Amino acid sequence: MLHFNPIYFNRDYAKAHGHPDIVVNPHLLFNTVLGMSVQDCSELGGPFLGVYDLVYDRPVYPGITVVARTETVEKRLSSSNPNNGIVTWRTEGFDSDDKRIVGFRRANLIKLRNPGKAS
Questions:
Q1: CB atoms < 10 A from the CB of 62, how many?
Q2: 0.90 surpassed by pTM
């Protein structure tokens, strides 16, 4: 992750720009929250289809505890391959004060247990 903005690694620079500490790189925050949801939702699933509606709510600083919550928001058969379904989740990351810091939707292609039957 080549991100050379000094706000992410130079404490004096971050403080000079109004932050109390260095800012956690948003890509690291996203990947952490995404990774926390993979084991429960898509670890055994098929190909990752993408991320949608990614929103960073505010800066995050080192030392906070991050909690991820995920819910299934849609499931449907694949129109191009009826042996597969597409599942979409909404995942949100929260800090220890239960304030949302990041949110997004993501989808995976999932092989059906019983192809040919609606699930």
A1: 9
A2: no
